[in-house]
Write a structure and sequence with these properties.
The structure holds 2 protein chains of 2 kinds. By secondary structure, chain A is mainly alpha-helical. Helix content of chain A is 74%, strand content 0%. Chain A has one domain. The chains are: A mainly alpha, B mainly alpha.
Chain lengths: 142, 128
């Protein structure tokens, strides 16, 4: 009978990612509230539908929010500060997600696929996601 | 659960109650969010790089109202459930009240989700 892979003690990837997942989860909530707050300051309450509110909340990018009916998007949104905020959201969410997928997959396929191959696959997926997302942010900068 | 045994669909019959349901839903909603965000970012990238109709073709998938209702469920549930997990992990004394916290979580979730669906149904879905 085979046994389950048991996590090691100490400063391992598992422990660090456990901590990281919780901290970034909180961070994403605060970043989203910040984006939503800025959206409300710029008139989200009266001039947008729900989709636009989500846009402003999670990814305050110039190309992204231009579809909402706010007269002058460039007023508060096109600045280095908001680009850094977007990058933080993308980095936290992407890493949180890649690690979560790795955990779920290791749970179900832990003994079928060698762990290094599995982790390498998710590492590649993570890097690809971040490259795509960052290129969208930087590419749409004004 | 059963170590070293293939449980398959019998896993679904495991009577873990509300905590087990949250555990499953947390995973399902996580995959839902990842699906949405990945499609969305690939679509934006495709539009930005001018890959023909790829961007708009991908937009059609995740902009459909079925997908939107699903994504709202995912985002709101995953946020609230994640917050509950973080709170319980950082203050382990609260583990005693896990079931009460879960009921509280659903009491917060249901009105928010119904409100979101209502707003979507009256504004968004009507416009297609």
């Amino acid at each position: 009978m085979q046994t389950r892979i048991i996590p090691q003690r100490g400063l391992t990837l598992d422990y660090l990612m456990w901590l990281f997942t919780r901290l970034t989860g909180l961070a994403i909530i605060f970043l989203a509230l910040t984006g939503l707050g800025m959206g409300l300051i710029l008139g989200a309450r009266l001039q947008m539908d729900m989709v636009a509110v989500l846009r402003w909340t999670f990814f305050p990018n110039y190309n992204h929010v231009i579809n909402s009916n706010v007269p002058d998007v460039t007023l508060g949104w096109v600045s280095a500060f908001w680009q850094v905020m977007q990058m933080l959201v993308v980095f936290f969410a992407g890493t949180h997600a890649a690690n979560g997928l790795r955990m779920i997959t290791e749970d179900y396929l832990g003994r079928l696929v060698p762990r290094n191959i599995l982790r390498g696959f998710f590492l590649l997926l993570w890097v690809a996601f971040l490259v795509l997302a960052f290129s969208v942010i930087v590419g749409s900068a004004y | 659960m059963a170590f070293g045994k293939y449980t398959g669909w019998k896993g679904l019959a495991y009577r873990g109650g509300l905590p087990m349901l949250s555990f499953l839903l947390h995973r399902i909603t996580a995959v839902g969010i990842i699906l949405f965000v990945t499609l969305h970012i690939v679509a934006s990238f495709a539009m930005q790089e001018g890959w023909g109709n790829w961007g708009t073709a991908l937009n059609v998938i995740y902009e459909s109202w079925i997908f939107q209702i699903f994504v709202y469920f995912c985002v709101i549930f995953h946020t609230l459930n994640g917050l509950r997990i973080v709170i319980m992990d950082f203050w382990p004394k609260l583990l005693k009240f896990q079931r009460d916290l879960l009921i509280l979580q659903w009491l917060i979730f249901v009105p928010i989700y119904i409100l979101a669906i209502y707003i979507m149904a009256t504004t968004n879905l009507a416009g297609g």
